[in-house]
Amino acid sequence: MTLAPALPLHRRLAVGPGAALLVVIDVITLGFVTLGFEMVASRILTPLFGSGIYTWATIISIVVGGLMAGYFLGGFVADRFPGFGLAAVIKFLASAYLFFIYWLTQGGLESLIGEIDGEFTALFVSGFVVCFPPLVVLGMYSPLSVRLLLRDPKDAGRISGGLFAISSFGNIMGIIVTTFILIPSVGTRAITAGFATFLLATAFASLSTRAIYGKSE
To answer: Please, what's the b/e burial string for 64-98 (b: 16 or more CB within 10 A of its CB; e: otherwise)?
Structure first.
C-alpha cells in the first residue's frame, strides 16, 4: 500500500496563513519589546541606584523570574482559552502596565523609593514594580503561540523550536536596537510609551483575527 505524502508543515497548522503570520510577527515583536524593555528598565533604575553589579543582578533576576512565571502561567491559561482573544488580553494588559510605568517615571518611582528603608530593599522593590508584572504578562504569550499554531502533536518540536528561535531573534534585536538606537535618540519614557502603544495596536489585530477565525482559533 502506498502512503500518501505528508502535507507540508504550513498546511498542517491549526490556523490559516494570515493568522499564522500574525502569530509569527507577534512572537518576533513581543520578543523585541520584552528585552527592549529590560534595557529601558535599566535606564530607569540605574540613575537611582547606580549601574553596578547589584543593580544589574537585580534587574536580570527579576526579568528572568517574571518570564519564568509568565511561561508557567501562560501554559495553563493557553490550554483553557486557546484563542486570539487571549492574545489580545495579554497585549492589552502589557500595554496598560507600560503606560503605568510611563506615568510612574514622572516622579512616582522616586516617591516610592523615599518610603522604603534600606538601599537594597528599595532596589529590589523598584525593580519588581518596574519589571516583574509586564514580563509575566509578556511571557504568557510564548506557550500561547505554540497552542495557537499546533494541530498535530507530531509537529510540536518543530513548531515550538521555531517559535522560540524567532522569539530569541526578537530578543536580540530588542536589546541592540533599543540600546544603540532608541535610547540615545528618543529616551526611555518615549520608548516605554511607544512599546505600550504598539502593544495596544497589535491587541486590536488579535481581536480582528479572533473575529475572522472564531473563538477556538
So the answer is: ebbbebbeeebeebbeeebbbebbbbbbbbbbbbb
Cβ proximity of 83 and 141 under 8 Å: no
Q: Cell numbers of 27, please?
A: 512572537
d(CA 203, CA 102): 19
Compute the distance between CA of residue 132 and CA of residue 38 in angstroms, rounded to an integer: 10
pTM listed for this prediction: 0.89
Q: Please tell me the class of the 16-213 domain.
A: mainly alpha
The residues spanned by each domain of the chain are 16-213
Instruction: Look at residue 7 and tell me whether its pLDDT is greater than 90.
Output: no
For the ranges 11-15, 60-64, 120-124, which has the lowest average pLDDT? 11-15
Q: Report angle CA 180, 176, 124 to the nearest 5 degrees.
A: 95
Task: Give the Cα separation of 67 and 64 in Å (integer).
Answer: 5
- Which of 4, 5, 26 minimizes the C-alpha distance to 15? 26
Of 57, 38, 22, residue with least CA distance to 174: 38
Distances (CA, A) of 32 to 87, 131, 179: 16, 15, 12
Contact criterion met (CB below 8 Å) for 39 and 183: yes
Tens digit of pLDDT for each residue in 106-126?
Answer: 888 888 888 888 889 999 999
